[in-house]
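Troubleshooting: if your tokenizer reports a length mismatch, compare your output against this known-good record of 147 residues.
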Amino acid sequence: MEQAEFTLVIERVFDAPREQVWKAWTDRDIRMQWLSPKDFSVRQDDGRICAGHEYKACMISSAGKESRYAGEYREVKEPEKLVFTHTWQNDTCGVPYIETLCTVLLEETVDGKTKMIFTQAGLRSADARRSHNGGWSECFDKLQAVV
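Known-good structure output:
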């Protein structure tokens, strides 16, 4: 029997120009400041942001638990679109080895802000979608603080 897929969609408006939000997604030093939920920090963030290139990352909780994930950049269209796969390498934060597809769309608003539409497709349950919504939302709260 085929497993149903669930898609997560999060929209945010950032009080920053699109180029600044793009840089926060693509500059390793900035990304390490925000690309983890609260009570987590980024320990590893390796990979070149270019279509066809792989990346590896690791978050660590305040309790010392590691959450490793990896993927591949599929599309990079500066400064408006970033598409990458996301696969948990351990089961701390999700079902291991299930590949999802993340898309980040950045749109300029008339008042100089940036509307971000984030989509994660291929989640395997409503619970996984709910859990990822919580984690990504906490990441995007931190993103707002750095842009």
